[in-house]
Amino acid sequence: MAEPTNTPMPPSTPVPASTPRSGSPVRPIPSLNPSASTLTIPLWTSPDAPAKTRPTVLHIGDPVRYNPNTYLEFTQAFDVIRPTVSERERPEFIKALKEKRWGNFSAIFRPFWGSGGEMGRWDGEVIGLLPDSVKVFASAGAGFDWADTKLLGERGIIYCNSGLAAAEAVADFAVAMIISTFRHLPWCMGAATLAQTDAIARKAFQTCHAQATAVSHNPRGHILGLIGFGNIGQQIAAKMGNSAFGMKIAYFDIDRKSPEVETELGATFYESLSSLLRASDCVVLCTPASPDGKALITAETLASLRPGTRFVNIARGSLVDEDALADAIESGIVSAAALDVHADEPRPNPRLVKLAGLEGPNPGRVMMTCHNAGGTVETHIGFEKLSMRNILAVLQGEEPLTPVNLDFLVPRPRRGSDY
């Protein structure tokens, strides 16, 4: 899912092999359907209780848009403070934390990925100024490479993302991108658009009509290699495998899934990334981060691909060495690619942009979109509600729903003054 345009996107925070990620929830997740019941007011308070008896939540970013009834109950359960836009700019935000302008707040709530990141990266400078009372940071969006989740955990703060809410939208988008790599949709769509102008452009239409067939294939029977097999990866497998598109599902993940999951989805586990790449006809990158925080798709890993393999990225742009990918496309190792995320957003790699165009002997080799995969109304409904539920769970002493940094968590003694 897209991260906010006002938040930098540095390399991902390292995630160790045993970290329970939002892609592999630690317990069943309640319904996120818009018609689902709203929050239950905690026992520590009531709507008539004075605000000082309630935990304080720092709400950064835009107002809640899609769950007004749930947010009403949320504001009854907690003393919610929403800093102004100017207060969220990094210098003023840091100043406010030093002044303890918002007191000993217990949680940070960021319900919308398009705002709330004005202070930039959550690094040691910002995290070090948070009061000891903070127990949870719940944010919209699937990615968390703009926040040092390891350092948050070492401060005793659970970071929860909202990737679960975006899983279906991202998986649906991935289906379109996978099909694009098999059917060369950028070429077909681009040539049809050009055909409305002049005789040269109409020739592009006729050329595509005549020649695209020779390089297009049905996905059925081909091996789909999924790098990452959490919620999104499993939904892609369900949509592309079995009787739907009939692809054979293979995956690599730092945590092998249960035999029941593998059997249900017809998925074969590969013990290494290189072995998965060697076996796949189309590779989809759908993991939230790499184990060491570095790019996963490099010249070295791309060398494991068989000539003509297809590649899709709906994860993080920073996980791919884009020049190495461009080299692989130009050499024919990768026959077609589809990229929703980019390393230097909002500036896609110029070599890949050129490969997405209609010039040259191999037009439209790359589909490129603007970090749109998770962007639906239903996703944002879930972002808001899941973030509120994570905060409610943690502050009531229950397990968080979608934590990403439990392996780094250093518990702190609970003090009455925290609230």
UniProtKB/TrEMBL annotation:
State a single Gene Ontology molecular function: hydroxypyruvate reductase [NAD(P)H] activity
Record keywords: Ribosomal protein included? no
**GO CC terms on record?**
cytosol
**D-isomer specific 2-hydroxyacid dehydrogenase catalytic domain ranges (all copies):** 123-405
- The D-isomer specific 2-hydroxyacid dehydrogenase NAD-binding domain extends over 205-355
What Gene3D superfamilies does its record include?
NAD(P)-binding Rossmann-like Domain
Domain of life of the organism encoding this protein: Eukaryota
Q: Which UniProt keywords apply?
A: Oxidoreductase
Q: Which CDD domains match?
A: Mand_dh_like
Which stretches of sequence are listed as region Disordered? 1-34
The entry's family comment says: Belongs to the D-isomer specific 2-hydroxyacid dehydrogenase family.
What protein name does the entry list?
A: D-mandelate dehydrogenase
Q: To which species is this protein native?
A: Podospora fimiseda
**Lineage of the species this protein comes from:** Eukaryota, Fungi, Dikarya, Ascomycota, Pezizomycotina
